[in-house]
Amino acid sequence: MGIYLIRRLNLFIATSILMVSILFLATSQFPTDRVYALTGIDNPSGEQALQIIEDYQLDKSEFRQYIAYVQQRLTGNLGISTTSQQSVAKELATVLPTSFELACFSGLLALLLGIPLGVLASLNQHKLTQHAIMAITLTGYSVPVFWLGLSLSLWFGVRLGWLPISGQINLLYEIKPVTGFMLIDTLLSDSSYRISAFKDALAHIVLPAVTLAVLPFTVVVRITRAAMVNVMNQTYIRAAEARGLHTGMIILKHALPNALIPVLKHLGLMLGAFASYAIVVEVIFSWPGVGSWLVSGIYQRDYTVIQGGILAVALLIIFLSILIEVIHTASNPLSRKELYASN
Fold first, then answer.
1. Is residue 198 part of a domain?
2. Do 160 and 262 belong to one domain?
3. Residue 78 in contact with residue 92, Cβ under 8 Å?
4. d(Cα 207, Cα 214) in Å, to the nearest integer?
5. Are residues 110 and 196 in the same domain?
6. Are residues 238 and 104 in the same domain?
7. Collapsing DSSP states into helix, strand and coil, what is residue 87?
8. E-assigned strands of the chain?
9. Phi and psi torsions of 80, nearest 5°
10. Residue 228 belongs to domain spanning
11. CB burial class (10 A; 0-12, 13-18, 19+) of residue 332?
12. Which CATH number goes with the domain that contains 215?
């Protein structure tokens, strides 16, 4: 297992270096001055210009410039935003938890609804019920996320007025950031209106979370159903039934844990699509996360924000994909058997 973890670590490092290399090549193609694209500083002073040349080795060969670029980016020097004149790293640290909160809430919602529905679809003997569940999931998978977000905003936000359609919390509430997760920070606040603020933050996250959860929800339902159908036909399940064990116990203790292993694998494979959907959802609902921050930087030609946002999103996808693969291998007896056999 140790050799396997070292291989995964090497894969993460190699993929990250490749991604940074692509960013370096893209930066050289930006339609602006190289110094401005790298640092975000417009019309630097003589001292600043010398420091930039030294930091990025701009008077050296392309290879030395590449090494300097990698060192600067991976040590946290992402330059300053040309729009706000603030450090890109600090802005990134502010918007990342907000995106994490939305992603975690959406993922939890998809799992809590998708797994039971997938189990129900696999066990229900009525063809009409099975076809109805699969038709709903296929429809949800096919609906464009931008259309779904706008439709939910129109119906539940504008016409019915049940839920807010933009932002993370009402501006009347002043919540001191602690964890960066608004739902948690409202409860940790010592203000007298923390419960009201929590309810308001919860209302704000419902529409974007539901919109973002549709894609993983449909995948979870379909994969859970297929995995449960396969598991329930296995010999050890038939043996448990022959011993007279209750159906609910068989499902919860024997069938479902094994059926969730393929679900975990497919969730890792769809991280890229999930991240692209999240960017669209954040823009639609004005959610102050990495996606809306990155799109705003693209509109304003904020080159350092573009580089920082792409770097952060790409590294997170690479890291989480490899982490899910490691968890899948550790939790899957067949994968462990193949792993030890190869060693």
1. yes
2. yes
3. yes
4. 11
5. yes
6. yes
7. strand
8. none
9. -115, 155
10. 96-268+276-287
11. middle
12. 1.10.3720.10
Question: Using CB atoms within 10 A of its CB, is residue 25 exposed (0-12), middle (13-18) or buried (19+)?
Answer: exposed
pTM for the full predicted model = 0.85
CA–CA separation, 50 vs 61, rounded Å? 17
In a domain? residue 82: no
Any bridge partners for residue 87, and if so which?
80
Q: Which residues in the chain land under pLDDT 70?
A: 1, 124-126, 332-343
Residue 212: its pLDDT value, please?
Answer: 92
CA distance 35 to 45: 12
Alpha-carbon span 212 to 208, nearest angstrom: 6
Q: How many CB atoms lie within 10 A of CB 48?
A: 13
Q: Which amino acid is at 51?
A: Q
Q: Is 181 a domain residue?
A: yes
Dump pLDDT digits (tens) for 20-69: 888 888 888 888 888 888 888 877 777 878 888 888 888 888 888 888 88
The span from the CA of 315 to the CA of 322, in Å, is 11
Q: What is the Cα–Cα distance from 48 to 76, expressed in whole angstroms?
A: 18
What proportion of the chain, given as a percentage, has pLDDT over 90?
Answer: 10
Structural domains in the chain (count): 2
Q: Tokens 């904020």 correspond to what residue? A: 302
Q: What is the DSSP letter of 175?
A: -
User: Do 248 and 197 belong to one domain?
Assistant: yes
Report the Cα 324 to chain-centroid distance in Å.
13
State the pLDDT at residue 172.
84
DSSP 203-229: HHHHHHHHHHHHHHHHHHHHHHHHHHH
Residues 5 and 125 occupy one common structural domain? no
- Whether residues 339 and 246 share a domain: the answer is no
Compute φ and ψ for 166, nearest 5 degrees: -155, 155
In a domain, 117, yes or no: yes
Domain match, 127 and 247 both: yes
Cβ atoms of residues 278 and 143 within 8 Å: no
